[in-house]
Give the backbone structure.
Amino acid sequence: MLQLPRRSLMGGLLAAVASPALAHGPTRQKVTQSVEIARTPAQVWAICGDFDAISRWHPAIASSPADKGNDIGSKRRLTLRAEGDPSFDEELVKHDAAAHSYQYRIEKVDPKVLPVNNYVAWFEVRDGAAGGSLVEWRAAFYRGYMLNDPPPDLNDAASSKAVAGVFRAGLDNLKVLAERA
Amino acid sequence: MRATVPALLLALAGPALGAEAWVTNQGDDTVSVVDTATGLVLRTVPVGSKPAGVAVSPDGRRVYVTNPEGHSVSVIERAGAVREVPAGAGPLGVAVARDGRVFVADWYGATVAVLDPAGAPLATLHVGQSPSGLAADPAGTRLYVANRESDTLSVIDLHTLATLATIPVGRAPFGVTVQGNRVFVANVQSGDVSVLDSTLLHEVQRLPVGEFPYAVAVTPDGGRVLVTNQHSGTLSVFDGPDYRPMPDIPVGDYPEGIAMSADGTRAYVAVWMDNKLQEIDVAAGRVLRGIAVGESPRAFGTFLTAE
């Protein structure tokens, strides 16, 4: 099950002190997760290719309606299966059904929900081994705390761990769903 | 394609046959030194923590690398020795003036540190918020500073160190490049490039580019302008004195630093997500080859040696 980041009150206060004027800290983080699925890319893409489909295959996401479908600029509102029904928007940057890939970004998210800034991600279904698929999910972002000396739950390692956890939970569940079909 | 490299040269791992590209690898705290003639990584130089900015000195003797998380600059003798000197809370952009003085932007300090060629502090300049890209003109008269959170470009007189002008540009200016009497500034948030006249000290043209532009390279004759677009994974290309848009060049995910060869025929682009240095045929507008470098290359600055 997905572990959403838990934060102390002190962490919240520290985050509030971080200057909103600073667009990012010094070092962009990179997270890549992938999974092999014993179905063709077309079969896998049919499950996960639509921008608004993520709530149908990601176990931590309760709903994900998108205002403009797969058009560039479409925004999907993710509501999480977590206490208080936290939600945030993701915006579609590119969608290429022929290449089985899309790219999206997060304009703004509460660091208590996902400790990232300037987040952009790529989702792609490629040819895998023996006629199967390789699904790759990659992201680039800055940690949840913009200034030097971040608190432990908003530092580079914690932010990367949170994103990797989200990706891992989604990909593992996508594999189960696709191979069951 | 290029000729095969003689095995003897490979075995010697000797001096570069062409210009060297000094590519900062933020993910593994190193610099990859690439021979652009052969496409070989000549060596990998350990530097400070999370290196980002880079500047080759005009005389070609030294390379300066900023380490944002080491709060330092690595002063690298091309001949071999590396020293790390302190440089503010968040050193990012770096430039070297013709006289050898080194300028280092402090992202957190709204300042630019002035260092002597050995890295000893000489002065501190006050600029806008979150200074990022720096460019010193070849004549040795001016320094340009992109102030990312102030949406301005500071113009500094290199003789007096006074601020001559603070010029409004697009939103979130980052990379700065000087060519002739033009200054190019990549505006990350507004997705365009400001073209400024360095004599008149104002913006003369605004070029729409891709998503999240980062840095600009220009041919020596000023005739072709290439811009890295981080989120689009492309280069925007402009041609001629009126900057006519040409087809984009796809280069991979998250392109960052870009530099032009001295003869204007090749450009080199660090592709952060793909851990590659892409070699571009500027006239043809296409990728010639990808060279594997270290983890998360940024190469933010003037990272090519003359030859």
